[in-house]
TrEMBL record:
A Pfam cross-reference name: Cupin_2
Upper lineage: Bacteria, Bacillati, Actinomycetota, Actinomycetes, Kitasatosporales
InterPro entries hit by this protein: Cupin_2, RmlC-like_jellyroll, RmlC_Cupin_sf
Segments for region (Disordered): 1-25
Protein name per Swiss-Prot or TrEMBL: Cupin domain-containing protein
Naturally occurring in which organism (per UniProt): Kitasatospora aburaviensis
Extent of Polar residues compositional bias: 7-17
All residue ranges annotated as the Cupin type-2 domain in the record: 36-100
């Protein structure tokens, strides 16, 4: 068993959210990564694609999730599953937090841009 305590080294700030890495291969897991996402009211992430399934549980507030041109409002206590290889965008109409789980080897891409990007909080 491994107990992981989040610290400042595991935090990634973007213009749209704050991700705090929890379990990841760099912190002792073999296959999975988990992290928390905090978004202030009005923040919207960019359209992007992840090559792995993600499971999000909203722990506070509300997220509006657009996936494959369909938008759902997901409130605290609800979980949504994002399939791989589908364009998605996350918007926080109010301050929100979520816990996310994914296979640790997932990468992101942006429609119209070349290449992929690793998710540093998930490594």
């Amino acid at each position: 068993m491994r107990v992981i305590t989040p610290n400042a080294d595991n935090v990634t700030e973007s213009p749209n959210a704050r991700m705090t890495g929890l379990a990841a291969p760099s912190r002792g897991s073999a296959e999975l990564s988990t992290w928390t996402v905090e978004m202030a009211a009005g923040q919207t992430g960019p359209e992007h694609v992840i090559d792995r399934e993600q499971v999000w549980t909203v722990t506070a507030g509300v997220l509006e999730v657009t996936c494959d041109a369909r938008t759902e409002r997901v409130a605290a206590g609800q979980t949504f599953v994002l399939p791989p290889h589908v364009i998605r965008r996350i918007h926080a109409p109010e301050a929100a937090e979520a816990h996310v789980a994914m296979r640790a080897d997932g990468v992101a891409s942006v429609p119209g841009a070349e290449g992929t990007r690793v998710l540093p909080w998930a490594r």
